[in-house]
Design goal:
Length: 148
């Protein structure tokens, strides 16, 4: 499986509209790296109030998009019994830099990589681009926990 559409991502993640931000995951290298697509549109819930006269995707949602892409990458590479009835929670963000504003009507491309894993704790890094322009980058960690 080298590409996941939104329905397949929905099968892996507990996120639902409007908080399911990832539209596609592709160039998947099992448990290692992938590229995600986030379609940022003027109709997106987060730009309608942030800011009406000068809409921009909030940085915190760029980080959330990184996290969703990483969770989908990890879940797609694990045996279903390993992630079934589990959730992935963000544990920490070591670095997040927002270099340029993400303006609606663009495709935000996230290049993510799993740096390491230790048990249920994973560490990732990612870079976000619009066209070839770097918009943001981050290093973060997450853990897999029981749904209860």
């Amino acid at each position: 499986m080298n590409k996941l559409n939104k329905d397949q991502i929905r099968d892996l993640l507990p996120h639902r509209e409007p908080m399911l931000l990832i539209d596609e995951l592709y160039d998947i290298k099992k448990l290692s790296s992938a590229t995600a697509l986030v379609k940022v549109r003027k109709e997106s819930f987060f730009v309608q109030g942030h800011f009406p006269e000068n809409p921009v995707m909030p940085g915190v949602l760029i980080v959330e998009s990184f996290g969703q892409a990483a969770a989908a990458l990890t879940a797609s590479g694990l045996d279903k019994s390993t992630y079934e009835n589990k959730l992935v929670f963000l544990m920490g963000v070591e670095k997040a830099r927002f270099r340029n504003p993400v303006i609606p009507n663009c495709d935000l491309i996230l290049k993510i990589q799993a740096i390491r894993s230790h048990g249920k704790v994973w560490k990732y890094q990612g870079e976000a681009y619009v066209d070839d322009k770097k918009m943001a980058d981050a290093i973060w960690s997450a853990t897999i926990v029981d749904r209860k």
